[in-house]
Amino acid sequence: MKKIPIKSVLFAFSIATLVSCDTLQELASAAATGSTTTNPQSLSNADVISGLKEALMVGITNSVNMASLTDGFMQNASIRLPLPEDAKAVRDKAIEWGLSGQVEKFETTLNRAAEDATKAALPIFKQAILNMSIQDGFTLLNGGEGAATRFLKNATSSQLVAAFSPRVQESIAKVKLTEYWNPIITKYNGAMTFTGGQKLNPDLNAYVTEKAIEGLFKLVEIEENKIRKDPAARVTDLLQKVFGSIKK
To answer: Are 9 and 217 in contact (CB under 8 A)?
Structure first.
């Protein structure tokens, strides 16, 4: 058997050691900078757009599931429907006249209408997401917290209002919102007849529609930001691939 010179063995060992050190340094550097194993260059614009839409789908599903529960709006301070701005003067007068119980019931039922209507929101929002046209997915992906939700809001708000409004009207009737509102506004407008003040009667359907959609967008943005920040929230391979490519 031919003997291998000891110098050759030492040389080969030194080369292997240097390569291993370089590899370890690269791994350590990657860990320190928070970079991921996904190469952003391997993502196509189509991949990113699909990932963004999937994130919004996850976000709206979770948001509707939360908001459509009893007290989903009422007990969530960030989305709870307050009394319409125009009705604040009515509220103050109603309390002055001893109708505070009616006012409280009206405010609760206002939120019940939003909660009930939200049960029908999921297919409407999902269709809006599917139809949403995104040209540059990378801009939204790297646009920071809430970027995809804001784009969805700007791109679909008018069609969402048109599609969601009839569901809100059905819910207002179902929870009998106007039964609590009518005695208050009738007494208030009657008093305005004698004092010469301005009569009021806010469009409750438009108000609940606007505030319910606004509340859902707030919740979707929270869900989007979870996916951006927390790998555990990336519940599909596509979400892991797309959002895992964001550099910290």
So the answer is: no
Question: Is the CB of residue 212 less than 8 Å from the CB of residue 165?
Answer: no
Q: What is the pLDDT of residues 103-112, one digit of tens each?
A: 899 999 999 9
Residues 83-101 have pLDDT tens digits of: 888 788 888 888 888 888 8
pLDDT for the residue 40:
52
Long-range CB contacts for residues 100-107, cutoff 8 Å, separation at least 24: 102/180, 102/183, 102/184, 103/184, 105/180, 106/177, 106/180, 106/181, 106/184, 107/81, 107/82, 107/83
Q: Which helix (H) or strand (E) holds 47?
A: helix 45-67
pTM of structure: 0.79
User: Quick one: tokens of 203?
Assistant: 């469009």
Taking alpha carbons only, the member of 144, 115, 172 closest to residue 228 is: 144
Domain residue limits, the chain: 1-33, 43-243
Closest CA to 187 of 116, 52, 91: 91
